[in-house]
Amino acid sequence: MEGREFWLNADDEVADEGLFAPRWSKLPSLLYALSILTTTGYTSSTPATLLGQWVAIGYGLIGIPLMVLAAVDIGRFLSEVVLKTYGKVFVIFQFQNKVFVSLIIRYDMI
Questions:
Q1: Using 50, 70 and 90 to split pLDDT, how confident is the model at 61?
Q2: What are the backbone dihedrals phi and psi of residue 13, each rounded to the nearest 5 degrees, phi first?
Q3: How far apart are CA 53 and CA 36, in angstroms?
Q4: Contacts of 46 (CB under 8 A, 6+ apart)
Q5: Mind giving me the DSSP string for 3-67?
Q6: From 18, 47, 75, 91, which residue has the greatest number of CB atoms within 10 Å?
């Protein structure tokens, strides 16, 4: 399929050249770049030239460690948010429990 136009089926060549988008349009290129950084892989579009392949390798060698550092920072931030939220919710439940127990004791509901 490399180097050939897209066909609707094996017998009929596409008459309209604008029917299919170019192989390296903006969105697939962005998806390919993000798939390199996240190491998920995206095999339907890959660089065809040797220079493009080397650029992608260099981009990955620089970008993957930076993505790991970003993921660690995001994880640390989310951990702090969850722990602070849990602490506040725990204090609220403790207060409600004290109020409930004091009401039970005051009105001798046990």
A1: very high
A2: -80, 145
A3: 12
A4: 32, 53, 56
A5: TS--BSSSS-B-S-TTSS--TT-HHHHHHHHHHHHHT---TTS---SHHHHHHHHHHHHHHHHHH
A6: 47
